[in-house]
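Sequence in, structure out. Go.
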Amino acid sequence: MHLAAMHVSGALLLLTFLVPPAWALNAYGAAPASDPSADVPPFMIFLAVVFGCVSFHAAVQIPAGLLGTWLGRNRTAGVSYLLVLAVAAVLTTVLLRGVLEAGSTDRILPLWADFMARGSLAMAAYVWLSRRLRSRPRLRKAA
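Output:
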């Protein structure tokens, strides 16, 4: 049940990255590809976006979905979704603080908001699908 919800929400998260993050657009236009002083080639920016998506999915979205739906198992879908978002907000903060150093709040807040905006849509699909699959009648074996 959760495996299907994880895959669907992960695919939806990946689709949200079709609209590139602001930091990627800024980095892409910072130096032309023909400039030898450019820090990274343009394809590395694309790889960083994909790596960020996969990292967010593995480190935040899956644990938040599992823990949030477990905490909200006997509650309404809205409460379960809010619990998933609360767990995701904490995990996103911890992940970004660990990656971007503890003292750089001015860089963390825009990234946090971007990841949470993308993740909230995907986690809504996770909660909806996990509740829908749980309420589906199960097939019984013939005796």
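Check: The two ends are 25 Å apart (CA to CA). The mean pLDDT is 80.
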